[in-house]
Design a protein that fits this description.
Helices cover about 35% and strands about 25% of the residues. It is of the alpha/beta class and about 375 residues long. Helix 1 (about 20-35) runs parallel beside helix 2 and helix 5 runs parallel beside helix 6.
Length: about 375
């Protein structure tokens, strides 16, 4: 069975205020063309269909066009909700849409109810595990704790229990939206830290023939059987060197995996430039970036006069400008940003307590902070869901 694995469409998202709807439309056209050209048997969409819980109308219209195009292919599509999606909104009409071969899986309680596909070698059970907000779904799926490993582990156990009751030789595919240990994040994913731990071990998916992951925007292989497709478009300058693609996966009669990448259209290249203003304006080495979306960081000791206007003459698509003066480590804003880079909300709060009081939080205080952050996240998720 040939599967096309994609995720993280983020319909409605812009890139530094530049609309990406046309680029997203081009990607979806490319996806449909790939399904036809590669004789794909099923499409897997591993979450973050939209960029936010209440997407703009233009994004909803594009999603509607995509659903009709996929249904017209007469090729099954299995789609889960991600942490950016409102599961309830995305899942509206799921039962009706199911009849058209578009299988939306947004209910955590239904994670062990697969879409069963068939080929000449038998059944393939495709399980959709939507993004699981620990504080909201712990009781619903019977997890021991309200953290990512516990809730995703409980969901995976339910999948394996259902799979064990099926005919021998049934192959298995799981769609999940999570941060799996060993994978590499970038700047454009929304933090899903809860309970102090954001990542989950790959061993949670033991016994599954193929796990199609979403959430991280870089295409990557965790193991032969566990892969991220990554986002089809770049959504931050940290993705400058990403090769955007989908996975074309052949699932053999005994669960063998053969996977290759299918590149997606690039609307415009990204370039991160650094140096003094005069050098950026004059250095011929930067000529290949004249048509790119540019993020420039100026290192001039003194901030130049109207640098954005000057840079825009050479780089008409410049979108971001920063300053990091040479030989200066006393810029409060810069040093503060460096201290926060890569730190979770929990870590930042603990650092603040230590700074104000002069001593780090004790275990009880860390627990209070963690539970408070979890409660806020759960409330926000409930508000988006409702």
């Amino acid at each position: 069975m040939r599967l096309l694995h994609t995720s993280d469409w983020h319909l409605g998202r812009s890139f530094h205020r530049v609309s990406l709807l046309d680029a997203q439309r081009a990607f979806l056209d490319h996806l449909v063309a790939t399904v036809r050209a590669e004789h794909v048997d099923a499409v897997l969409v591993a979450g973050d269909v939209y960029d936010r819980a209440v997407p703009p109308l233009a994004a909803v219209e594009l999603y509607d066009i995509a659903l009709h195009a996929l249904a017209d292919l007469d090729v099954p599509t299995v789609m889960i909700s991600g942490n950016h999606d409102s599961a309830r909104r995305l899942g509206v009409g799921a039962g009706l849409i199911d009849r058209a071969g578009i299988h939306l899986r947004t209910d955590p309680a239904a994670c062990d109810r697969p879409v069963v596909l068939r080929d000449t070698h038998g059944d393939v059970a495709v399980y959709g595990l939507p993004y699981l907000e620990p504080a909201l779904v712990r009781d619903q799926i019977g997890a021991e704790r309200a953290d990512h490993t516990a809730v995703l582990g409980a969901a995976a156990d339910r999948v394996r229990a259902d799979l064990a009751a099926r005919p021998a030789g049934t192959r298995s595919v799981v769609l999940a939206h999570a941060f799996v240990t060993g994978a590499a994040p970038c700047d454009s994913e929304r933090d899903i830290t809860a309970g102090g731990v954001a990542s989950v071990p790959a061993a949670l998916f033991d016994g599954i023939d193929y796990t199609a992951l979403g959430h991280l925007h870089g295409c990557q292989t965790v193991t032969e059987r566990i892969r991220y497709s990554g986002s089809p478009l770049a959504y931050s300058f940290s993705e400058e060197h990403h090769r955007k693609s989908m996975w074309l996966v052949d699932l053999g009669p005994r669960g063998e995996i053969d996977a290759e990448r299918v590149d997606t259209p690039v609307p415009r290249r990204l370039a991160r430039l650094r140096g003094r203003l005069d050098d950026l304006l004059a250095d011929p080495a930067h000529e290949p970036h004249a048509d790119a979306w540019v993020e420039a960081t100026l290192t001039d000791p003194v901030r130049p006069y109207e640098p954005m206007a000057a840079l825009a003459k050479r780089f008409p698509h410049i979108l971001s400008l920063g300053f990091d003066p040479e030989g200066r480590d006393d810029d409060p804003a810069a040093s503060y940003a460096r201290r926060l880079a890569g730190r979770s909300d929990q870590q930042i709060a603990e650092d603040f307590v230590a700074h104000v009081r002069g001593s780090a939080p004790d275990p009880h205080e860390r627990l209070v902070l963690r539970e408070t952050f979890d409660a806020v996240r759960a409330a926000a998720a409930t508000a988006e869901r409702d």
